[in-house]
Specification:
Oligomer: single chain
Number of helices: 14
Bound molecules: adenosine-5'-diphosphate, magnesium ion
Largest sheet: 6 strands, mixed
Strand content: 15-25%
Length: 431
């Protein structure tokens, strides 16, 4: 049983582990070549081309294209979703110059970052357990997502092998660890949230296979699904959950991640409008529309520094169709954004502390000055400054000054895609 109360049950219920012979992440890495990554996480997906420079050569170049996923494909069929993705990937490859031509007979290789809960049976196969983050495609559940993608690539006539299936947290950990060996965990704060960390293999009771030579393995925590009677929820959280596509699931994700923060703010504003006539005698109809207020809108309002809170006024007018808000109303909106963002950020910080405690790195040990790096990525962390500021200050507050000096939170920009390409390289068929 894992020792941190926060994650004991969680890790045992939904973890998966990877086993590479010499290193917990990369068994061995192939020399000079071209690899691709496909990152399917939430609202957008990304295709990447990564050129590696051979042993110790690092990453020579990387290019990417980002495509948004049409709403109807998120709730359609598996073939429709994967055909769309394969078609975009095919376009990306078709546009590349002659310098990227592979020798005849050589297959392109791809790392597939798929950030939904998967029962992973090997490095290049895994069945989808359930959808999260607004996706609901019934016929894909229980299917091998690599096989689904491979068939779609074949339908496109694209000769590409999926050589690694990777969760975004594992990809970020791999990408971070590749450039810095002090990286011990990765956390994603984007549309959804999740974390992965490097664990001693002998501390994983559910692993019954051969122990890896490195003595370490990667645990994908699926922490978005954490829930506990010790985690206080409000009536807004209960209602949001009950009306979601996945009631009862991803409870932690629903209070800390980007898909939901704006929606929580909307729900609270709607209640205040109903009960004490904020915004006038009638409740503005737009305020009753679920998910109309997105987290980027919330963050724009939260960061408004103008004396008349003009940005807040503009957002209220443009998104919620509230034309003449008063300064007092705008101030209340900012205050609410602050409360909702701070709750999410502080809980995310508590999650990170849970990992540090599990690794025994939350206290100061005399004579040791080991650096601990946590790689963080995701649009919420990257773009919502008040959120990331609060997350970082909470970690410092929880750890105390002395320990904080050795713990580094590092933004791993696009680490998951790069990590997936690196993992594709380390599992290449041409090794
Ligand atoms: P994914 O989880 O889909 O991989 P990303 O890491 O690309 O997502 O992050 C996208 C999410 O980040 C959006 O769904 C949104 O919640 C959040 N986000 C994007 N831009 C902003 C912003 N300016 N302020 C706050 N949150 C943002
Ligand atoms: Mg992502």
């Amino acid at each position: 049983m894992l020792s941190t109360p926060l994650f004991g049950v969680l890790v045992l219920s939904q973890s998966k582990a990877f086993n590479c012979p010499n290193c917990p992440i990369f068994g061995s890495l192939i020399a000079f070549r071209l690899f691709y990554a496909l990152d399917l996480g939430g609202t957008n997906f990304r295709v990447l081309r990564v050129q590696l420079g051979g042993k110790d050569g690092g990453i020579v170049s990387q290019e990417f294209a980002e495509v948004s996923i049409p709403q109807d494909l998120m709730v359609g069929t598996s073939d429709e979703l994967f055909d769309y993705i394969a078609a975009e990937l095919s376009k990306f490859v078709a546009q590349e110059g002659p310098e990227f031509q592979l020798p005849t007979g050589r297959q392109r290789e791809l790392g597939f970052t798929f950030s939904f809960p998967v029962m992973q049976s090997s490095i290049d196969s895994g069945t989808l357990i359930k959808w999260t983050k607004g996706f609901s495609i019934d016929d894909a559940v229980g299917q091998d997502v690599v096989a689904e993608l491979t068939r779609a690539l074949e339908r496109q006539g694209l000769d590409m092998r999926v050589s690694a299936l990777v969760n975004d947290t594992v990809g970020t950990l791999a990408g971070g660890r590749y450039s810095n060996k002090d990286v011990v965990a990765a956390v994603i704060l984007g549309t959804g949230t999740n974390a992965a960390y490097v664990e001693c293999a002998h501390a994983i009771p559910k692993w019954h296979g051969l122990l890896p030579k490195s003595g370490e393995m990667v645990i994908n925590m699926e922490w978005g699904n954490f829930r506990s009677s010790h985690l206080p929820l409000t009536e807004y959280d209960y209602c949001l959950d009950a009306e979601s596509l996945n009631p009862g699931e991803q409870v932690f994700e629903k209070i800390i991640s980007g898909m939901y923060l704006g929606e929580i703010v909307r729900r609270v504003l709607c209640r205040i409008a109903e009960e004490v006539s904020l915004f006038g005698d009638t409740v503005p109809p737009k305020l009753k529309v679920p998910f109309v207020l997105r987290t980027p809108h919330m963050s724009a309002m939260h960061h408004d520094t103008s004396s008349d809170l003009k940005v807040v006024g503009d957002k209220l007018r443009d998104i919620l169709e509230i034309p003449n808000s008063s300064l007092k109303e705008r101030k209340l909106v900012v205050q609410l954004c602050d409360i909702v963002a701070a709750r999410g950020a502080r809980l995310a910080a508590a999650g990170i502390l849970g990992i540090l405690k599990k690794l025994g790195r939350e206290t100061f040990k005399d004579g040791e000055n080991q650096r601990t790096v946590i790689a963080l990525d995701g649009g919420l962390y990257e773009h919502y400054a008040e959120y990331s500021k609060c997350l970082e200050s909470t970690i410092a507050e929880l750890l105390g000054e002395k320990v904080s000096e050795s713990i580094v939170i590092e933004h791993s920009n696009d680490g998951s895609g790069i990590g997936a390409a690196l993992l594709a390289a380390s599992h290449s068929q041409y090794l």
